[in-house]
């Protein structure tokens, strides 16, 4: 079973905020811990969509169970944000589906590279990023956590077809 992936709608707000909180709690993190926050959720239209990025949700049976955001940093680089999969749906390829969909979307939008971060506590995310060609660029202790910063160069579709 794969999620149906679509663009975020305003009516998804409460669901994705809860998904964010549940997913962080699963690995012992909470919004406001110095690493994660949730103040961008009411402003997804402004922060992600209106400025050339995107925000996708994954549904199963009409239920939102995954999400991922893309926020432009500059004209060539975007930040991958908010990659979350509900704990009941983890280890089924949903994180992979969301990551691959957003990487493709980033290429469509003209970005040449992506950056993102996670923590050492989020082991599944670290494995996923490594499997899909992301490389660690630095680490930084924040409170009780270690934030891992990653990046990936994107290959435009035209370069693949040659």
How would the global form be characterised? globular
Stretches with pLDDT under 50, minimum 5 residues: none
Helix content: 25-40%
CA gyration radius, whole angstroms: 15 Å
Q: How much strand?
A: 25-35%
Describe the structure.
This protein has a single domain (4-161), classed as Aminopeptidase (3-Layer(aba) Sandwich). It has helices at 13-26, 44-49, 94-108, 123-131, 157-161; strands at 4-7, 54-60, 63-72, 77-85, 113-119, 135-142, 145-153. By secondary structure, the chain is α+β, with helices and mostly antiparallel strands. The chain contains five helices and seven strands. Helix 3 links the parallel strand 4 and strand 5 (113-119). Strands 1-2-3-4-5-7-6 form a seven-stranded mixed beta sheet, with helices on both faces. Helix content is 30%, strand content 33%. The N and C termini lie far apart (33 Å).
Overview in brief:
By secondary structure, the protein is of the alpha+beta class. It has five helices and seven strands.
List keywords for this structure.
162 residues, alpha+beta, Aminopeptidase, 7-stranded mixed β-sheet, 7 strands, globular
